[in-house]
Every structure is written in structure tokens, then in C-alpha cells.
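Teaching assistant's notes for section 4

Start the section by putting this record on the projector. Ask students to predict, before seeing the second block, whether DUF4232 domain-containing protein will look compact or extended. Collect guesses on the board.
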Amino acid sequence: MANTSRPVRRTALLASAAALLGLVGACGSESSTSTAPRPTQAPRTTTPDPGAATGAATTPAATAAPSDTAGSASASARTDGRCRTGELRAEVGRVDPGAGQRNFPIVLTNTSDRTCTVRGYPGAAFVDASGGQLGPDPVRAPSSPGTVTLAPGKSAWAGLSFSSPQISGARTATPAALLVTPPDEHDPIRVAWTAGEVPVGGDESSVKVTALEPGTGP
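Reveal the predicted structure now:
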């Protein structure tokens, strides 16, 4: 009987060797695939938050509004137009006699809380106790009127003058008051008149008034 075990064993060994070679090839192929270089991913960058380090808010709503202190100071210093009758106090100063003349300062004082201006001649009229005017309106003395700025509490004055009735011989009357009207206003301020008689007619009876200037008189 022939011996068949040797060829069978050789065949089995050859098959095992072939399987082993195939396994090695497969492993080599898988290894080369897994070690292929991957695409490089660009690193992510983040922009730092300027408010994060300081804790300050960066929204427009949190921005502090600029101070209006300078604007308030500027508004308080500005001039807001002419002085109104209701913002002024009128007074007649002491008589200043000289060279046959009687001279009086008419003083207007700003009693308001704003700065205002006066310019030109005040109106003036002597009246009796019932309000009737005594004599003609005063004549404006030649001058160059300027704008006078009156801060609260400050004054401007105009001169009121006439010839002494004892010298001129003019017809006279004793007023109860002098009505003083600020420039460009219609409402007068009534000031009690305590300086005696004034000329109201006849020779040398003219009463003169000068333009306003800063201060309370000479």
C-alpha cells in the first residue's frame, strides 16, 4: 500500500504559507493607510475682548455722556435780550445843582436773575396825583447811545435836567411822580417825585434827558 501522508502534509504547509503571506500583505496595506498624513487644520484664533480685562462694558449704551457743565456756565454768561419793564427798578437820585441847572440821575437796576441790556434814552414824564402829565415830554440831549449790559443787580443811568425855575421864570408845577419808561418798552415805572417844583411851560421850560450809560450816576 502506497504512503500518501507526505504529499498531503506538503500541500497543507504550502497553503498555510500562502495564507500567512496574504495576512502580512494585508497588514502592511492597512498600516500604510492609517499612517498617511492628515490635512493640517489652521489654528483657531480669537480676538480678545477689550472689556474682558478691565470689566468695562463695551456697548454704546454704557458710554458716559459728556458733561454739560461748560455749557451751563456758558448759558449763564450769555445775554438774553433787552431788559423788560418788569425786570427793572427805577429810582431818581439826589439833585446835583450847578450853573442855574438842576440835574438828577434816573437809575434803572436789573432786578431779574438774568443778564439783559438797555440801549438809548428812557422815556420820562412828570404826572400829578391823578396821573395827568405835567408839561411836554423831555427833549433828548445829543449823545451817542450805546448798549449797556446789565447783569443781575447792576444799573444804568440817564441824566434828567432843567433850568432852575427861580432863575428862568418858567411856569411850574409840583409833580406827584415821574413815569420812567425803559428803552423800547411801553409800560412805565412810577417813581415818587420829592424834589419840588419843575418847569411845565413858558420860557426856558424844556426838560432834557440823556442816553443811558453804565453805573448809578456821576
